[in-house]
Specification:
A: alpha+beta, 2 domains, 12 helices, 9 strands, B: alpha+beta, Phenylalanyl-tRNA Synthetase, Chain B, domain 1, 6 domains, 7-stranded mixed beta sheet, 6-stranded antiparallel beta sheet
């Protein structure tokens, strides 16, 4: 390149015709040099050679003075045009070179995008805690506040206020953990309903999530499990409002319209009492060998009823003025149904592998 | 509770299938768990008569029988020893199937072709029905050729029904028949024996009955009036005994019950024993009235008293266990000696034996409450106590005794029955209950009073009055004696509701309350923290609230640590689930163990938000429950990674704790501290300021290497735990715009003693800068950006480099504003002993 540039030497003879020739020579040799420039450094070198202080074009411009005044404008125009041309071509070339160099640098910085990420792997929720928060959010939308209470509870709130005196066979349904001082681990979250009534009175709309304990341990019973109960206490409450609340809860939680049926049942603290079955979330009642619904097509998910006047009174509320309903469900069961967990034992052993196994499923 | 469809048909005329009945029962409160037909697989088995029995010509232990069957004479080889010519048996021809589905075929025994076989009860699916080892023999009047599955209750359909505790009346065939009659108004209840005319003549000759069911005949046993023995009185000083009846049967011969009774008992889950005992059980299962049979000769005295037990009084019950009683228990005594625990179990000395000659039969009614109490207190549930605790119709006791005496006689157990001796305490009379149209309409959104009355009458209630009050129409109903559970208006509404079903009621959403729903600070906080934790790579855990009592040892907790003295359960399931947790850490450690033993080799990060239980002498009941959050981080069984800097350590976990606190608008000081289970050099107290008050919220620690070793953890384990209550109210952030005046930046690099903490060095820098800049401090922040110790740094020292930011509130700082202050601060630090670099 340098050779070509160097051929454009000082101008010996100044006349218009000679200048024209010189301009052609400069242009030709510039283009030739430019085409062989490989990088921005080379480009800068060329630029200096042409339009630098001692550049060829600069020399030509300086020599204009030697021309007769009448020829100068034409000669000047010729040279300026040449300069503009070369400037533009230099600029274009520079842009192209810069672009190529950036791209080359990016190529060097190439990352193997399949490498493992350097951040920590994400965590995972516990299905039961997730279920609790989901249901609380649904019920909040229906106006239910959250009420919490102690897990170590007094017999009075856990049984007596709920119409389950000590001799009552209903206590057989709930084998209880006791402490030596006669207190117990609550067998349901119902005592929170009593405490809520005593604290807030009526009208009242609460859900009470929490851990509960029963002295049972087999493949389908854990001595500790999680419940969520609801209580609505207002004036002239119909069973239909309970039905509506539970429809929203179930459809909201499972994310679709589910068939449901209500069966009459018995709980000491409600009268009348019912249980809710929803259609099997696994087979929809279509699989006679379904391991979830055992082929019945129905899943028992929730006990409920109109709050017994005895209980309303125990909560310090006048049952002649207010009535309402209560319902209760196992959060563990709800979580197992929604997330397809088949074995209760996985829920409380803190095994990360089990919960992370569901992370990317 | 198992219901026999076969027995049910003695009580009710009902034109539905067992499946239809089950569906209706399930939806109306008596859930049918399953329907079974234990002999469904039996096919082609018929009655045959043994015409002759000969020894097998070659095999000494075999007999060759000639049978008269519906298909003529056949030859059958048997090893059974109990047969004699003339016996009626069940015969399975080749091609027929047994209860277990096995198909029979012809088989040759050393040249004698046996065409199928004669069957034992076991082969018919009911081993308990066999009296002796061998072939089941049938009554003489059995008709040759009859299909076995139509005889004696074989081929029955059984409904396993879950009976709720309020419906003691459903624990019998009779009760179930009444319930079905209420549910199926087109059905017809068949007459009960006690509804028939009674006579009180001495039995002169046995009354012939073709079956064990006298009910359709409407007959009632006629009993001898005067007892042939001296017998004193029945005294009931304890009002918990509502009534007490004694029947007497003499000339007793203990023998097996008839085959149909044995089949019925087997189907219902009771083992047939003898004609006497079976009669009491049969009456209990059919009528719901528990009975108890005493051997009269074993009674200490000819009198019976039902009284409260003395405190500490003992009785040896039938199951061979000694029971220590309290005055809340009722004892049946004779001559002052306990012979039975009322309503629960008889005494071991006075029961029926093989040589019993005179039976004294007790039919009584005891208070549900008292029996329930005793049964629960002793953890002793019997068929009797289960029924009494759920309420037995007090009018049944007499009937039950009569019926059992009758059965004993029919089953050749006793020749003569005698009229009862009875004593009665005041029995509670069912009180009328009102039903208002208004309440009915409120709850069910349906209010047809006439239809309601029909439904209630179907269930045995009697309409006693009808009027109109200010609330509209009112009707009054008296519940039958077997429905003590009906006492308030809601109970009537439930009967109507469950009859009609709840599925057609409309769905209505609750209206708007005059206040918003409040999720509550605890739940909001738990939700916020779990969000941060899961995002930072933690897995959420829920672990048991109870721990092995020795968890305190595992954590090296000293006795005076509040966590070393947990509340303990009085009746734990096992020693492993005994102590209420005082910290969440053991649960997480167990979770780590569980994860590793399941083969997990990667890092483990788990957290839990939950309650802990701490003793507190100032709190109610001597303890308090605290919400806490704990986390655990373990590098993994195989901690290798291409990114060394991502391996967790104390400071990375510190970052997590800071993030939890930051999500509540809080920042913490981490102050070097100690934990009994903490690494000496890697344990910090987490201290948070709430206004003027500094609270120790919890700790962050690496487990002490000793515990890591004891628990076989091959990599460091980091744990933290914080109390949540102080974080329930989030601190609001205070916002300010960026300063319009640029800051000036200077670095300070120095050697500091290793014993000086970062926080302390920064405090020194701040003090030095503030000292040289005076009251209007220009110091904005001091940030560590490099730390180095090792080669080139004297031992005991480390090199620290800090970026110091200066900024003025009202102007752009010039070099000369900062240089003087900065250099003066460096001099101050040098004087303090730091060596500046």
């Amino acid at each position: 390149m340098n050779d070509k540039i160097n051929k454009i030497d000082k101008i010996d003879k100044i006349d218009t015709a000679g200048l024209k020739k010189q301009v052609e020579d400069v242009r030709a040799s510039f283009r030739s040099s430019l085409s062989s420039v490989q990088n921005t450094d080379g480009l800068q070198e060329l630029r200096v050679k042409i339009i630098g202080k001692k550049g060829v074009l600069t020399s030509l411009l300086k020599s204009l003075g030697a021309l007769p005044a009448s020829e100068r404008p034409l000669a000047g125009e010729m040279l300026n045009k040449l300069r503009d041309e070369m400037e533009e071509e230099l600029g274009n070339k520079k842009a192209a070179l810069v672009d190529a160099e950036i791209r080359a640098a990016e190529e060097t910085d190439r990352v193997d995008v399949t490498m493992p990420s350097r951040a920590r792997a994400g965590g995972a929720f516990h299905p039961v805690a997730q279920t609790m928060h989901e249901i609380v959010a649904i019920m909040q939308g229906l106006g239910y506040s959250v009420a919490l209470g102690p897990e170590k509870e007094e017999e009075h709130y856990n049984f007596d206020c709920l119409n389950i005196p000590s001799w009552h066979p209903a206590r057989d349904m709930q084998d209880t953990f006791y402490f030596s001082d006669g207190t117990l681990l609550r067998t349901h979250t119902s005592p929170v309903q009593i405490r809520s009534m005593l604290k807030y009175g009526a009208p009242l709309r609460v859900v009470c999530p929490g851990k509960v304990y029963r002295r049972d341990n087999d493949t389908t019973h854990s001595p500790m499990f999680n419940q969520l109960e609801g209580l609505l206490l207002e004036q002239d409450v119909s069973f239909s409002v309970l039905k509506g609340s539970l429809r929203e809860l179930m459809n909201g939680f499972f994310g679709r319209e589910l068939k449901s049926r209500f069966r009459a049942s018995y709980f000491p603290f409600t009268e009348p009492s019912m249980e809710l079955d929803i259609e099997c979330v696994e087979c929809g009642g279509k699989n006679p060998n379904c391991r979830i619904c055992k082929g019945t097509g129905w899943l028992e998910v929730c006990g409920m009823g109109m709050v017994h006047p005895f209980v309303v009174r125990a909560g310090g509320v006048d049952p002649d003025k207010y009535n309402g309903f209560a319902f209760g469900m196992g959060l563990d069961r709800m979580a197992m149904l929604k997330y397809g967990i088949s074995d209760l034992r996985y829920l409380f052993n803190g095994n990360v592998s089990y919960f992370l196994s569901g992370r990317n499923a | 509770m198992i219901i026999s469809w076969h027995l049910l048909k003695n009580f009710i005329k009902l034109d539905v299938t067992p499946e239809e009945a089950a569906e209706r029962l399930s939806l109306s409160g008596a859930e049918v768990e399953y329907i079974s037909r234990p002999e469904a697989k039996i096919k082609g088995v018929t009655v045959a008569r043994v015409d002759s029995l000969k020894k097998h010509h070659a095999k000494e232990h075999l007999l060759v029988a000639e049978l008269n069957t519906c298909k003529g004479e056949v030859v059958c080889v048997t090893a059974a020893k109990n047969l004699k010519p003339g016996d009626m048996v069940f015969y399975g021809a080749p091609g027929s199937t047994l209860a277990d589905g096995k198909e029979l075929s012809a088989r040759s025994f050393d040249g004698v072709e046996s065409a199928g076989m004669m069957l034992s009860a076991a082969e018919m699916g009911l081993p308990d029905v066999d009296i002796v080892e061998g072939i089941l023999t049938l009554p003489k009047d059995a008709l040759v050729g009859s299909d076995a599955t139509t005889l004696y209750g074989f081929g029955d359909t059984l409904l396993d029904v879950s009976i709720t505790p309020n419906r003691g009346d459903l624990l019998s065939v009779l009760g179930m028949a009444r319930e079905l009659h209420g549910l199926f108004p087109d059905s017809e209840l068949l007459p009960m024996p006690w509804e028939a005319e009674t006579t009180e003549e001495t039995i002169e000759q046995p009354i012939e009955f073709g079956s064990i069911s006298p009910l359709r005949n409407g007959a009632r046993p006629r009993l001898a009036a005067e007892w042939p023995i001296e017998f004193g009185s029945i005294s009931l000083p304890d009002p918990g005994c509502i009534n007490y009846n004694l029947g007497l049967a003499t000339d007793v011969t203990i023998a097996p019950s008839p085959v149909d009774v044995r089949v019925a008992l087997s189907h219902l889950g009771m083992r047939p024993i003898s004609n006497i005992v079976d009669a009491t059980n049969y009456v209990m299962l059919t009528l719901g009235q528990p009975l108890h049979a005493f051997d009269l000769n074993t009674l200490p005295a000819p009198e019976v008293t039902v009284r409260a037990a003395f405190d500490g009084e003992k009785i040896l019950t039938l199951d061979g266990k000694e029971r220590v009683l309290t005055p809340a228990d009722m004892l049946i005594t004779s001559g002052g000696v306990g012979i039975g625990l009322a309503g629960v179990m008889g005494g071991s000395q006075t029961g029926i034996a093989d040589d019993t000659k005179i039976v004294l039969l007790e039919g009584a009614n005891f208070s549900a409450r008292r029996v329930g109490h005793t049964s629960r207190r002793l953890g002793l549930t019997s068929e009797a106590s289960f029924r009494y605790a759920r309420g037995v119709d007090p009018t049944l006791a007499e009937t039950g005794v009569d019926y059992a005496l009758y059965l004993m006689r029919v089953w050749s157990g006793a020749k003569v029955g005698y009229r009862k001796k009875s004593a009665v305490n005041a029995a509670p009379e069912p009180k009328p209950v009102s039903l208002t149209k208004k309440k009915l309409d409120t709850i069910l959104l349906w209010s047809d009073m006439d239809e309601s009355a029909k439904i209630l009458e179907g269930f045995g209630l009697k309409r006693v009055s009808q009027s109109v009050s200010q609330d509209g129409p009112v009707m009054s109903f008296t519940p039958p004696t077997w429905r003590p559970d009906i006492t308030i208006e809601e109970d009537l509404i439930e009967e109507i509701g469950r009859f009609r079903g709840y599925n057609d009621a409309p769905d209505i959403l609750p209206g708007v309350l005059p206040r918003r729903a409040d999720i509550g600070a605890e739940t909001v906080l738990a939700g916020a923290l779990r969000g941060v934790a899961i995002a930072r790579g933690y897995v959420e855990a829920i672990t048991y609230s109870f721990l092995p009592e020795r968890f305190t040892d595992a954590l090296h907790l000293p006795h005076d640590d509040i966590r070393a003295n947990p509340l303990t359960l009085a009746n734990p399931i096992s020693q492993d689930w005994m102590a209420m947790r005082t910290t969440l850490i053991p649960g997480l450690l167990a979770g780590l163990k569980e994860s590793l033993s399941s083969g997990w080799r990667e890092p483990v990060r788990i957290f839990e938000v939950g309650r802990i239980f701490l003793r507190d002498p100032h709190a109610k009941n001597g303890h308090r429950e605290e919400d806490a959050m704990a986390g655990l981080v373990f590098g993994g069984i195989d901690p290798r990674t291409p990114w060394k800097e991502t391996r967790d350590d104390f400071l990375s976990v510190k970052g997590d704790v800071e993030a939890f606190l930051a999500s509540r608008g809080q920042a913490a000081d981490f102050v070097s501290g100690t934990q009994p289970f903490g690494h000496t050099g890697q344990t910090a107290d987490i201290v948070v300021s709430f206004g003027e008050e500094k609270k120790k919220l919890g700790f962050l620690a690496r487990l002490s290497p000793a515990i890591e070793r004891e628990m076989d953890f091959t990599e460091p384990v980091y744990v933290f735990e914080i109390f949540l209550a102080p974080l329930e109210t989030p601190k609001k952030p205070v916002y300010s715009p960026a300063s319009q005046f640029p800051a000036a930046f200077r670095d300070i690099s120095m050697l500091a003693p290793l014993s000086r903490t970062n926080d302390e060095v920064i405090a020194d820098i701040r003090a030095a800068v503030n000292k040289s800049s005076g009251a209007k401090s220009l110091l904005e922040s001091v940030r560590l950006f490099d730390v180095y110790s090792g080669k080139g740094i004297p031992e005991g020292l480390r090199s620290l480099a800090f970026a110091v930011t200066y900024r003025a509130k009202e102007k752009t700082l010039q070099d000369e504003d900062v240089d003087g202050i900065h250099n003066a601060a460096r001099d101050t630090l040098t004087q303090k002993g730091y060596s500046m670099r």
